[in-house]
Amino acid sequence: GSMTGGIAFEGLNNAGHLDTDMLVILNDNEMFISHRVGAIAGYLAKLLTLGSVKKVEKRIETALKRIEYFGSYLLRIARRFKFLLVPGMLFEEMGFTYLGPVDGNNFDELAEILANIKKNHGPTVLHIITKKGKGYHPAERNPIKFHGAAKFEIETGEAQKFADSGGPITPTYTEVFGKTLLELAAGNEKIIAVTAAMSEGTGLEPFAKEYPKRFFDVGIAEQHALTFAAGMAANGYIPVCALYSTFLQRGYDQLIHDIALQRLPVIIAIDRAGIVGDDGKTHQGIFDLAFMRLIPNFVIMSPKDEQELRDMLYTATKLNKPVAIRYPRGRVPGVEAAAEFTALPEGRAQELAKGKDLCILALGNMVKPAMETRELLKKEKIDAGVVNMRFLKPIDEALVRNMAQKIKNIVTVEEGVSAGGLGSAVKEIISIPGTKILSIALPDKFIEHGSQDILRDKYGLTPQKMLQAIKAWYGSK
């Protein structure tokens, strides 16, 4: 799967040129996170049908050398056309010795091959064929589902289901996004979907089945996905590019130069934003608010629930400018969504509750915990208001200044790093003497592996932990 990314070929090109003793193992299980796509996928599939060609190649060369007069001439011609027949010529032309394909699940055979490769000089590509999920039948039957599995029953492989706070099981933000995009696409043939080898993870499988000619999976190539979307936008389409927050980082240059600078109406659906949980440090989506806010011309939104995600996606299709909508991994709060869409006023926040002692400015999935924190503060005789910010950019400066003038005690809450996000934006706006600002966000560090609940509690993003932080801060004035 990673062979579809440009950096893989940059590395191969460099290694082949240096002629170092190194081994590259190409683990071919015919999968990305979703099913494999693209020309490289086709090339690797073709190699599987050519496994015996190398043996034939030697026999042909031996036979041609025996032909009197014309043998050497025919051999030169044969070598020129070798690339048509011999597996791995793509790698050999880059300076690698290609070996394979071999059975990567046969450990004894693989160990013997690896031992022999150690004796060789120069860079080598070993192409192994493996079966994703091998040894566990539910994973073999459904490798996409088990790429990043939640808790499941070992005997059946079925996911364990949990109700939301004792209520009904609600859809995930990803599911809401996918369903909403389908609805919008039914009424607007200009809407297309783009993803980078994550059609299932981003909720786009239903779209791909319903509108196969309007769906584009570019492989593990986020940079290309964004520039491809920009090109489609330049040609009058409304591309919705769905990527995980952590993978969006790979396309930062494209966000700036190919989308924002050109003011192209590309909609970036940032999935898995905030604390992702069990996928670990590399997959936490904690930087997007900060790195997206720096880019001119972008509108940045984050929904508090299902209805708001639907309305934000609808609004984005009407703005005719670059838009990013970020939402977390997990289920939406149990709020019934309306069938109709509502266009949200650009850059306008929503005051959910008034308070005279302090005001909590919350963004996205932190709105619900902020409202719960408000109820806890009431019991402590602290009257807190809550504002659903909706937009990080353009931020509702008028509302922020108004709250600072009236209340003087402002708390910002976001599920992202503290530097550069909502807290930073509010501090840049407010310069009123006597105003206090508390920023509740993630610290300046990489967040470790752990469940979302455990990590949110550890880093102070639960109502109980926010209550403690606000009480200590409010009482210190």
Word description of this protein:
The termini are far apart. The longest helix has 15 residues, at 173-187. The strands form three sheets. Strands 5-4-6-7-9-8-13 form a seven-stranded mixed sheet, sandwiched between helices. A five-stranded mixed sheet has the order 10-12-11-14-15, sandwiched between helices. The protein has a three-stranded parallel sheet with strand order 1-3-2, with helices on both faces. It is built from 19 helices and 15 strands. Strand 2 (97-103), helix 6 and strand 3 (124-129) form a beta-alpha-beta unit. The chain folds into three domains: 2-129, no CATH class; 173-326, Thiamin diphosphate (ThDP)-binding fold, Pyr/PP domains (Rossmann fold, 3-Layer(aba) Sandwich), CATH 3.40.50; 350-474, Rossmann fold, CATH 3.40.50. Helix 3 runs antiparallel to helix 4, helix 8 crosses helix 14 and helix 15 (367-379) packs across helix 19 (463-474). With 477 residues, the protein is of the alpha/beta class. It has helices at 6-18, 39-48, 53-65, 71-80, 89-92, 107-117, 137-141, 173-187, 205-210, 222-234, 245-248, 252-260, 288-293, 306-319, 367-379, 397-407, 422-429, 452-458, 463-474; strands at residues 23-28, 97-103, 124-129, 191-195, 215-217, 238-244, 267-271, 299-301, 323-326, 350-353, 358-362, 384-388, 391-393, 409-417, 436-442.
